[in-house]
């Protein structure tokens, strides 16, 4: 991926030095304070629970602090030993620059896409944290992986996930990392469109866990498709892609499919429990967005061919 020397976004908040502490241990304990000074009122708790269900997270993960649920549900990242400071300051700074450039690229690309439709794009913030952080959607840990919080329109990423993507999920490559960021930005696009609110209403009306999961799969696959739309346009507008980049993104999409994750952790897959989609679905919807470059082609809510 061609990213060196390109514009860095000004919407990156580096909170790595302040995260992982602040009185909320991970996992368990130190959850959201209810009805106390500076805490969250009951209305806020209801909103938090609704958002947790929308993103497939057990609300207790947020309300109690920590936990292992990957946003969108289903993906359980095995707990690892505490990390030693293996990255040099130079490597750490380069990782931050990479994230800033990719975020800046999404800002430029989506601004042009929105402008072509007579609309103005309002970009999200991206927060870098380490181990754990107080997010706009409650307490979060690195075990949750990257996630988007619609309440404050921020993406949260612990950079150690990129190492895990390469090591545990066998999806190396800079564009695989860019795909992860683009997927989370896809959730921001959904938020701007009102799609997340639509999905939340559908899930509230669902009568079974399987139905709620199926709605969540459509949310995640649309975000994958939007990541593909971004890749389509950045390739044309910015000459960003190099040979092998799309294949790298497809490997990442397939590696974090629900069936691949479940088979690697339990030896078999349970389709009714999927919350992100299968490896085939994730790769297919990313490809669809990449080939068409059209938001209209990403309507996962009005198709039977999911």
Automatic annotation (TrEMBL):
One of its GO terms (cellular component) is membrane. The chain crosses the membrane at residues 34-55. Its main location: membrane. Pfam families: Zn_peptidase (PF04228). It is a single-pass membrane protein. It is found in: Membrane. Keywords: Membrane, Transmembrane, Transmembrane helix. InterPro entries: Uncharacterised_pept_Zn_put. Residues 1-19 have a biased composition (Basic and acidic residues). Residues 20-30 have a biased composition (Gly residues). Residues 1-30 are annotated as: Disordered. This is Metalloprotease.
